[in-house]
Amino acid sequence: MTDAARLLDGPRGPKPTRRLSRRNIILYGTLSVMALYYALPLYVMVVTSLKGMPEIRMGNIFAPPVEITFEPWVKAWSEACTGINCDGLSRGFWNSVQILVPSVILSIAVASVNGYALSKWRFPGSEVFFTILMIGVFIPYQVMIYPIVILLRELGLYGSLWGLVLVHTIFGMPLLTLLFRNYFTSVPDELFKAARVDGAGFWGIYFRIMLPMALPILVVAMILQVTGIWNDFLFGVIYTKPEIYPMTVQLNNIVNSVQGVKEYNVNMAATLLTGLVPLTIYFISGKLFVRGIAAGAVKG
Amino acid sequence: MRTTDTPPALREDSSRPPNPLFRNLTAKLASLPMVLTALVVFVGCTGWTIVHSFTGSKLLPKLKWVGFDQYEKLWNTRRWLVSIENLALYGIFSLCFTLVIGFTLAALLDRKIRFEAAFRTIFLYPFALSFIVTGLVWQWILNPDLGIQSVVRSMGFTSFEFDPLYNASIVIYGLLIAGLWQGTGFVMVIMLAGLRGIDEDVWKAARVDGIPVWKTYVRVIIPMMRPVFITALVVITSGIIKVYDLVVAMTAGGPGIASEVPAKYVYDRMFSSQNLGQGFAASTMMLLAVVVVLIPWAYLEFGGKKHD
Amino acid sequence: MHSVSIRSLDLHFGAVKVLQNLDLDIHDGEFLVLLGSSGCGKSTLLNCIAGLLDVTDGQIFIKDRNVTWMEPSERGIGMVFQSYALYPQMTVEGNLSFGLKNARMPRAEIDERVARAARILQIEPLLKRKPGALSGGQRQRVAIGRALVRDVDVFLFDEPLSNLDAKLRADLRVEIKRLHQKLSNTMIYVTHDQVEAMTLADRIAIMKGGQIMQLATPAEIYNRPGNKYVADFIGSPSMNFLEGDLSDGHFTTGGENLDITGYPFEGPATGAATLGVRPEHVATGHDLQGLPIQAEVAVELVEPMGSDTLVWTTFAGQSFRFRMDGQAEVRERDTIRIGIDPAKASFFDKASELRL
Ligand SMILES: Nc1ncnc2c1ncn2[C@@H]1O[C@H](COP(=O)(O)OP(=O)(O)O)[C@@H](O)[C@H]1O
Ligand SMILES: [Mg+2]
């Protein structure tokens, strides 16, 4: 290819008119194969959850259901056994909701204040604490989980919902603080100074100026936290009692319980049910999430 | 040069500087949760575990010193050695594949293609799902009797064999397939954002200079995206170390102990087999591994900056 | 009474000493411009006065109150920033009233003050808009209004016009001057643009490296710069400098012996010195009459600028520029006769660079 020709149908130029150029076949071919890999499990989950057990035993996991049944969904929601009780995933779902709401609110509230203080009200030592927090991201949870059990027990929160809320707030803090710190650092200092001249104090500036400006990053933080906390397994297992186990823990107990015949359709229905909350959030806010990563993660 | 009308002496000294401790007190009080988390949890709890890894704690933590006994025992435990080997293998593969796949997908999506949003949504959705869900789905797909293996066999390839979950020598690749499925989309998005942040003029300049596209990526774009790669690297590594849920859901460490990982070893020792000392020692080793990996990186990243 | 007094002010950022032992008195109702190149500490000084930076040492008085450790809002100052710094999510009205609400002022009075400021700045039609929907000039007016409503003793401006294009800048400059005439409160105005400084200021403080090099009226600074830095900084194109030696009424430079009778020496009239001559103070044609310093020079380069023409040449072996009428017909390689009036020139000591 001559340089001039390359310039004409260069990659960043207008779309080539020849639809089936070699470039396009390779490009879309690769993307489609990859898309298949990513999409297949969701498809399999849906298809399996709508089949009856005989059909599953006979056939192909990729085949669409011959006879659609919602039985597995009902069973997964209200009857499946975890080894301790047999009231399905519904209990775990409500537990997760009860854990989720206060955890998301508290963790975002604390982290946004941290980020704000770190970007606009630096005091001697504030950077030290921030550095510790950032190093904390790299400390494996396993190193801290046991002493936290002791701390929670001392506080009388071990095994309770609020204990888990506290743990989520603590471990969500580094990333969220970084997110908010970067965001608030990009808010011009002059705006902050203007507000101080106008007589606003720490909280006044936070609530009247900073928070209203932080709406996009708040949404991003919320998406991250909702999915992160909903999907948590380790903390749920360690810091709660069976009655208030979150949905992920219950799901694992249902699917991997050794007793009884494996009901793959019920298992997949249960798995889908557990994934439904974060999936819904992503499909609704997909673009915002992508924008959020661009703003937060890459800049830092 | 005179810039004052009266001699420049201090006229009155009524307002002394306030105690610096109380300056901007609200900001300091508001930062208290952060300070406590940093000091009590990240420093305090970590130190506590390290200290207790030198004790013979069993059911309850006790300060009964045993020196390096726990570590000696740890490194003589086969299950721990298998865990370490698995983590190393999983880590290296996961790191390489995630970076390569993530970047390739991002680069492909950045070629001004149709249906970009659709592709992006498909690549990213697994990231919304938990490792438990991920593990359970792939456990089902990789089921040797009813999953992929049986489907391929029923197509005529009767000798086809792919049962990672029941084959100790390849179980780690089963985990890898699931792990990559869950996490690469996120890295792709980070990379895509990085690519979008590159000035269009760079591409124009490369095109004017007649540099082929692939060469532009290798020689110009990737070096420019260094910070993005570092972000991705940090995201991936911290994910690898935490790998626990996926194993619990997908293989429960099996077959046998073939897919055990350090995080699971720690959990089991602390909460199931009432051998706290072993748990503390194992978790301290995990921390040490992180330190060994991170210190050279931190040195390159922050030590080098002083010279600029 | 002094509006603002600064006594031996120090400000350090860690090891970097940005302001050192700075003293300054600003009169009541004065328009003081802090002028200097970028990074010399102008904004830092302004932020100290505003209370946005904690001083390392020294005292600041506003209206004879020691405000060194007071909150910005308690100091009776209003501030206008280069980037306007309007609160993006509030309307113009919200922006103007934010400070008053923080001061817990009654609603009726807030409305009255906002209305008055809007009238003065002619932004009444904009009150319900968000800053995003305003042009640069309108935004800066709102920013000024935010200081105006608070009825402050001292206005602080930090390069308020730098983000505007040339024409708007000139317009708004005049408006700020009018505003000062109308309100007659003290204004401290930071800029790196000498035209702004010369046109607006009652007095200019020229800063360099965290210190005030000269504090004087614009005319004084232009005609009798206190040192070589100020002489070089002020005026465009900048002053010609000729190195040489002073002795009994003569200045020897590059082999020429110049008669400098008529120069009002303040310092010793001997020793190594620098002669400074502004390009516009070099005479040609009829104006040569009676000037003690005259010479024939060869034109090397001509820069016509419409209203006048800048001619580059060599005088006494050193590069030398002068300004002629825009209609003057000069060409490269012409020879031209120039003259210098010692009374309009400046001498600086070679070592200390102070005015002689
Ligand atoms: N927060 C800060 N930390 C360290 N150095 C600073 C800080 N702010 C300003 N400086 C330094 O102080 C000097 C003066 O800055 P400034 O007052 O903003 O200059 P200007 O005259 O351009 O307004 C500059 O050299 C700048 O680099
Ligand atoms: Mg400045």
From TrEMBL, chain A:
It comes from Aliiruegeria haliotis. This is Carbohydrate ABC transporter membrane protein 2 (CUT1 family). GO terms for cellular component: plasma membrane. The chain crosses the membrane at residues 25-46, 99-117, 129-149, 161-184, 205-230, 266-284. Gene3D superfamilies: MetI-like. Its main location: membrane. It is found in: Cell membrane. Keywords: Membrane, Transmembrane, Transmembrane helix, Transport. It holds the Pfam family BPD_transp_1. Residues 93-285 form the ABC transmembrane type-1 domain. Belongs to the binding-protein-dependent transport system permease family. It is a multi-pass membrane protein. One of its GO terms (biological process) is transmembrane transport. It comes from the Bacteria.
Automatic annotation (TrEMBL), chain B:
The chain crosses the membrane at residues 29-51, 87-109, 121-141, 170-195, 216-241, 280-300. The lineage of its organism: Bacteria, Pseudomonadati, Pseudomonadota, Alphaproteobacteria, Rhodobacterales. PANTHER family: ABC TRANSPORTER PERMEASE PROTEIN (PTHR30193). It is a multi-pass membrane protein. Its main location: membrane. GO terms for cellular component: plasma membrane. Keywords: Cell membrane, Membrane, Transmembrane, Transmembrane helix, Transport. Gene3D superfamilies: MetI-like. InterPro entries: ABC_transporter_permease, MetI-like, MetI-like_sf. It comes from Aliiruegeria haliotis. It is found in: Cell membrane. One of its GO terms (biological process) is transmembrane transport. This is Carbohydrate ABC transporter membrane protein 1 (CUT1 family). Pfam families: BPD_transp_1. Residues 84-299 form the ABC transmembrane type-1 domain. Belongs to the binding-protein-dependent transport system permease family.
TrEMBL record, chain C:
GO terms for biological process: carbohydrate transport. Residues 4-234 form the ABC transporter domain. InterPro entries: AAA+_ATPase, ABC_transporter-like_ATP-bd, ABC_transporter-like_CS, ABC_transpr_MalK-like, ABC_transpr_MalK/UgpC-like, Mo/tungstate-bd_C_term_dom, NA-bd_OB-fold, OB_MalK-like. The keyword Ubl conjugation does not apply. Belongs to the ABC transporter superfamily. NCBIfam families: PRK11650.1. This is Carbohydrate ABC transporter ATP-binding protein (CUT1 family). It comes from Aliiruegeria haliotis.
